[in-house]
Amino acid sequence: MKKYFLLLLIITLLACSNETDKNNNNNNTTNGAVSFSIQNQSAATIFNVVWNNRSFNNNQAINTGGNSQIDNVKEGNSYIFFNIAGAGSEIALRTRDLVSITDENLTFQFNNNTLIVEVANSNSISTIESFLNKINNPDGLFLPGHNEILTSLNAIGGGINNARILSYQLMQNLLWKNVISGSENDGVNLARDSKINIEVGFTGPVSASDVTKVLNNLFINFTNANIVISGGMTYPLPAHLKIQNAIKALDGAGTTTNVVVTDYIVNGSYIFDGYEIDRPYNAIIEITVRYTTIILTQERVRTEVIQIFGTAGFNSVTVKPSHW
Fold first, then answer.
1. Per-residue confidence (pLDDT) for residue 2, from 0 to 100
2. Which CATH architecture has domain 236-323?
3. Which option is the CATH number for 146-231: 3.30.300, 3.30.980, 1.10.10, 3.40.1130?
4. How far apart are CA 50 and CA 64, in angstroms?
5. For labeling, which of 138, 265, 287, 308 is most exposed (least CB within 10 Å)?
6. Where in the chain is the domain with CATH 3.30.300?
7. Is the pTM of this model over 0.85?
8. Dist. CA 105–CA 107, nearest whole Å
């Protein structure tokens, strides 16, 4: 009888153990299946996204900032296969590394630095960003420099000796970048579909259509170049107060409480705020600035003032900073 009860006890304990294991397994997964999500944070629009023969978003596009999820995914290892919309969309791509699914939900993020491989050429490894640049910009396209724009405008009329870039912006990889000076502009590598906005003002005996044709020709390789022009402008000189505030802003400690533009001479004549000139590149401007701080150097003051005038279209500027 004792042996009978002992055997019954062992059978009961084994049944309880199996039930516990079964419950624990059910808490982790549903029949061993989990979910797999894709987040596209890259500059590319991807489509035909497949992992282990499972398709995301019904093979439709997943735009930048978009997400897609497949459920009831079994454990396994596979690359993520996909295509990139636009130029080169016929090239089959995959992730360089295998993506493994175990017993937990997984999210995979595509970004510009994700390493990818061409399926037909496993030696061709790149990032999404470099792939986009290679496909969209095979010839190494660059923005025209400011000097190139101004020289071209001068050439069409022989009388445009006053031209200024009012605004010059480009959008690439989702970020707006301001292109201010020629040194910052030259050498910027772009894709054909980069968005470009340029506004140029001029004074001279040519028509707006002539100026437009020249600018469009300079940007002929770009599909999203928006050209805006204006003529017959005058150029206000930067005000004394603007110069003073800019120099104060250089001093992070806030000890610059006294900045004075003591001399402000244009073409040999003393001028005041609000003065306008129609040919800034021919103007000779001399400025003397006094300031009170030991933190700033004369070179920093000089650089800041020259930049203010350069942004406003003036380039013949002499700055004499003096420290009180």
1. 52
2. 2-Layer Sandwich (3.30)
3. 3.30.300
4. 17
5. 138
6. 146-231, 236-323
7. no
8. 7
* Distance of alpha carbon 89 from alpha carbon 93, whole angstroms: 9
Structure tokens at 207: 């028509």
**Three-class DSSP category at 120:** coil
Question: CA separation (Å) from 173 to 39, 176, 237?
Answer: 16, 9, 36
CATH code reported for the domain at 34-136: 2.60.40
157: exposed, middle or buried (Cβ count in 10 Å: 0-12, 13-18, 19+): middle
End-to-end CA distance of the chain: 110
**Mean per-residue pLDDT of the chain:** 81
Question: Does residue 15 have a pLDDT over 60?
Answer: no
Strand arrangement, sheet containing 93-95: 54-55, 46-51, 80-84, 93-95, 115-118, 121-127
Q: Which residues contact 73 (CB under 8 A, 6 or more apart)?
A: 33, 34, 35, 36, 51, 52, 54, 101
Query: DSSP secondary-structure letter at 173?
Result: T
* In the chain, ranges of CATH 2.60.40 domains: 34-136
d(CA 78, CA 52): 5
Q: CB of 233 within 8 A of CB of 250?
A: no
Question: The tokens of 138 are what?
Answer: 């095979």
Residue 116: pLDDT band (50, 70, 90) is very high
For residue 167, how far is the Cα from the chain centroid?
A: 17
**pLDDT (tens digit, 9 = 90+) per residue, 28-77?**
444 557 999 999 999 899 999 999 999 999 989 999 899 999 999 999 99
Q: What is the pLDDT of residues 158-207, one digit of tens each?
A: 766 677 777 777 776 545 565 654 444 555 667 777 788 888 888 778 88
Give me 141's structure tokens.
Answer: 């396209």
Q: Specify the amino acid at residue 13.
A: L
Q: d(Cα 250, Cα 301) in Å, to the nearest integer?
A: 8
Query: What is the distance between the alpha carbons of residues 265 and 275, in angstroms, rounded to a whole number?
Result: 11
Residue 275 CB burial class (10 angstroms; 0-12, 13-18, ≥19): middle
